[in-house]
Amino acid sequence: MAVRHTDRVSTNAADLPADPQATAERVAKAMEHHDEAIRGAGIRLVDVGPGRARTALTVEERHVNGHGIAHGGYLFFLADAAFSFACNSHGVSTVASGGDVAFLRAARLGEELEAEAVERALVGRTGLYDVTVRTGAGEVVAEFRGRSRAVPHLPAPTLD
Amino acid sequence: MAVRHTDRVSTNAADLPADPQATAERVAKAMEHHDEAIRGAGIRLVDVGPGRARTALTVEERHVNGHGIAHGGYLFFLADAAFSFACNSHGVSTVASGGDVAFLRAARLGEELEAEAVERALVGRTGLYDVTVRTGAGEVVAEFRGRSRAVPHLPAPTLD
Amino acid sequence: MAVRHTDRVSTNAADLPADPQATAERVAKAMEHHDEAIRGAGIRLVDVGPGRARTALTVEERHVNGHGIAHGGYLFFLADAAFSFACNSHGVSTVASGGDVAFLRAARLGEELEAEAVERALVGRTGLYDVTVRTGAGEVVAEFRGRSRAVPHLPAPTLD
Amino acid sequence: MAVRHTDRVSTNAADLPADPQATAERVAKAMEHHDEAIRGAGIRLVDVGPGRARTALTVEERHVNGHGIAHGGYLFFLADAAFSFACNSHGVSTVASGGDVAFLRAARLGEELEAEAVERALVGRTGLYDVTVRTGAGEVVAEFRGRSRAVPHLPAPTLD
């Protein structure tokens, strides 16, 4: 479903492996290493590959409001994290320029949520990524669409 | 700038004061009381009134990535919180159905951010709220537009 | 990929056939019959089914600007039309509450464009539809996401 | 309300007047001259200035569906046209990268609609423009937010 990128930006990732899957994994590992915010929010990287990623969150007391319902801020955060791993997976530094989220169902205390990001389009430096947030039972909680922009002059994240 | 609501939904807030400002304050106090998630993320309510609200966040270590830049998830969270206080300020239970955020500048460790939400339109049960996130120096970091839907059959938050 | 609707709204379409495909076709035929605007803009319905539709537009002189590039307004129009057929395909009157479009490539004079709408989520009365606009060569020109709301008390379109 | 642009892109408009208002008017005149699509859809430019524009449309038979309600495609088109004049008003060639529209009320046959675009943010090459579509009676029909990107290497429109 994703658009093939006909005019890929030149990569800044001279040291990255040629294999797309290995590149995605190495970049994700470096991003995780540096990103206190995602880890601190309780978000885990589950899987990553070229143009895709999955993240997970167990809904804890700190994520809910007084009605025991996960706050929309954390649903966005979970989806945004998957988007971020996916849009950086090609080894070119890429930033989020924006995104839209639709909240469809409530997620409750104790539920295990997973966000799955797939690349919908990559044209020049512009990318679009669709992220679906589901409960463990497979019910859709939120749909997110992220907009990214490659910034090849920025260094890719490393493990240094 | 906000649209006047010509066909207001019937309120579920029989016990709320008749004064719009007092209503906004009482609802916000009850929401704060019940919302662990906002407080836990480090977000503070600064001001609230009919159809508007301001929230603040000091960018701490836990909010940033390895480059010392606030994570987009927390920028969304801050804006979404202001939106939530603003769209509930009329005393009718209202939920976020979605929102769009544009990230315009990086916010750095130690910066004091403020999100200001204003009501742009309220037509029937549908509301639109514009939220601008600024640094202490007044630079715009993000622009958010939230979509809300009133659910008058839900009880309004109380301090019980 | 579309979410199954667990809590379908009650249909207002007592006279519609029980077969989902036949329902989609009959509703589309009635919509086409009444909709001068779509036809007048040069947009044609190509195919319709339960939760999906395809529309087409040949880029003519009247659709382009001085550089021979199709105006974004017509790209939106084409996508919105596919969305409209798709979200009404279940036989329940449904209105567009909004949508987001990303313009990815220019479409030129003489090109044959097709918009393909698929249902992404249908939860209660709220629907999300993804529409991709492609050239005849399969290049993606625009990506649209439409938000719909069922209004079961409105009569479904008929051929009267 | 609009963000001041601290890091304006270098202009490609060497021949444009130094006065911002005169620049906006000259660019708009050239855009109108070249744009068959806007004129053909029945959209008129009413007013333009630095970072802002107003367009108008009288809802005719060709703009409505069978219920006598203006098609969402034309509401988007009207808003998008105002956005386009506004984001090009500084004399730097600028393209629409996308936009979001919320449909709030129906507009009927014979109504005079006006779209007012204002610059909300301009940071580097990225712009955000808010467009409100109102009836002659001042009721809000739709709210649009356009996203633009300056492309200074493209020539500005001229009257040639």
What do you see in this structure?
Four copies of one chain form a homotetramer. The first copy, chain A, has a single domain (20-150), classed as Thiol Ester Dehydrase, Chain A. The first copy, chain A, is 22% helix and 35% strand. Chain A contains three helices and six strands. Chain A has helices at 20-34, 36-40, 72-87; strands spanning 44-49, 52-58, 94-103, 112-123, 126-135, 140-150. Chain A has a six-stranded antiparallel beta sheet. The model of chain A is unreliable at 1-12 (pLDDT under 50). Chains in contact: A-B, A-C, A-D, B-C, B-D, C-D.
Summary of the model, kept short:
Chain A is built from three helices and six strands; from the N terminus they run H-H-E-E-H-E-E-E-E.
Lay out the secondary structure.
4 copies of one chain form a homotetramer.
Chain A: H1 20-34, H2 36-40, E1 44-49, E2 52-58, H3 72-87, E3 94-103, E4 112-123, E5 126-135, E6 140-150
Antiparallel strand pairs in A: 1-2, 2-4, 3-6, 4-5, 5-6
Identify the quaternary structure here: homotetramer
Poorly predicted ranges of chain A? 1-12
Principal-axes geometry of chain A comes out as globular
Tally the structural domains of chain A.
1
Number of helices of chain A: 3
Count of beta strands of chain A: 6
Provide the residue-averaged pLDDT of chain A.
Answer: 89
**Gyration radius from CA atoms of chain A, angstroms:** 16 Å
Task: Give the fraction of residues assigned to helices of chain A.
Answer: 10-25%
Would you identify the CATH architecture of chain A?
Roll
CATH topology of chain A: Thiol Ester Dehydrase, Chain A
* CATH homology superfamily of chain A: Hotdog Thioesterase
Record the strand order, biggest sheet of chain A. 1-2-4-5-6-3
Name the beta content range of chain A: 35-45%
**Class derived from helix and strand content of chain A:** alpha+beta
Q: Biggest sheet of chain A: strands, sense, closure?
A: 6 strands, antiparallel
Distance between the ends of chain A = 35 Å
The CATH C-level name of chain A is Alpha Beta
* Biggest interchain interface, per-side counts: C-D, 36 and 36 residues
* SSE sequence of chain A, one letter per element: HHEEHEEEE
